[in-house]
Amino acid sequence: MANILRETVRGIEAVRIEDELLKNREIFLVNDVNAESSNELLKQLMYLEKEDCTKEITLYINSPGGEVISGLAVYDYISIMKAPVRTVCIGTAASMGAILFLAGKKREMLPHTRIMIHDPSYSHHDISGHKPHEIQHELDKLNESRKNLAKIIADKTGKSIEEIYKVTADDTYYNAKEAIEFGLATGIITDNKVAEEER
Question: How far is CA 90 from each of CA 46, 98, 101, 108, 142, rounded to the nearest angstrom?
Answer without folding.
Answer: 23, 12, 11, 9, 29
